Amino acid sequence: MITPVKKVNRFFMLALAPFIGLIFCLLLLRPELDTGTLLPSNLPEEHVTAQTQAISKELAGAKEAAIQTSSSIKRTTQLYNQTTSTMSTIVQKASVQASRPETIYNKRITSKLGVPFERVDSDRITIEMYRVNPGTYTGYAMKVKLKDHSAMQMALNSEPGRSETTMQAVKRSGAIAGINAGGFADSGGKRYPLSTTVMNGKYVNGFQASFKDLFFVGLNDAGKLVGGKFFDQGSLDRLRPQFGATFVPVLMKNGQKTIIPDKWKVSPKRAPRTVIGNYKDDQLLIIVVDGYNENGSSGATLEEMQGRLAKLGVIDAYNLDGGGSSSLILNNRVINKPSDGNLRPVPTHFLFYK
Q: Which residues belong to any copy of the Phosphodiester glycosidase domain (predicted)?
């Protein structure tokens, strides 16, 4: 694509070409004077003087033309430099203006979160960590901007049935941050990811149509959060998921609160929570809520999580595995307070890379 500055460069290169050619002709192709041919010895002195004066006059004219050409090139060069500088300024201002809506929107959502107590910024990702304390529960909100969609991945151990803590997954892969992801099912002393799971663009155990209150959530090949219920594989395939996991239930869709099944309103009523959502500019928001245990007496209800997400302007949101599975890691530190007292090993984790 030819930028405005490149167009100006091309124009002035074409404009200067005739002048440069003239100088080369004058300096390199000027014929040498043969005084023996031009001034025969038998010519009268007045004829020699006349020819010499004519030649001198031509040389003076050529010199004047060269001076004028040089002066014209100098003026053209100055104009070129001025125009190039002006065009560069215009392009820079246009770029700044184009980014203004994004900046304004980011300030709007950030103002609702408060002041971050920790920040990570690189050319691949920006992470900001906030405290969430509405009075009935305490927790943390992690806002993530993926500048490079490969800065978010999912960890799934290559050995089927093997699980690990989020901290172990973070350290093993060299990530800067991580959270627990989908649910799991225990069998034969091993822990397997629940239902449809995608890793590196492939189904780990095949596609399973959504049933009951389960949903799938992950990231597609364009770095966008995708999720929901999928009753046939083609519907999910069209979203091109690169990785993702399954749990219950969906909390927000297209900026609206979804209906929470009665079972999940009381089973348990309150609990430690991990939820993931996205803003309309595709930034991610992860909220991890603390709780003392999983008996329903501490933590947050799913309705409270919906209310908080709606106030923060989240568009889509999904409830990930909670209770003792809830974990939030940043800079090799456990940020939340796991209800088990220690991090719980689980099959899947969402990881973030600096």
A: 174-352
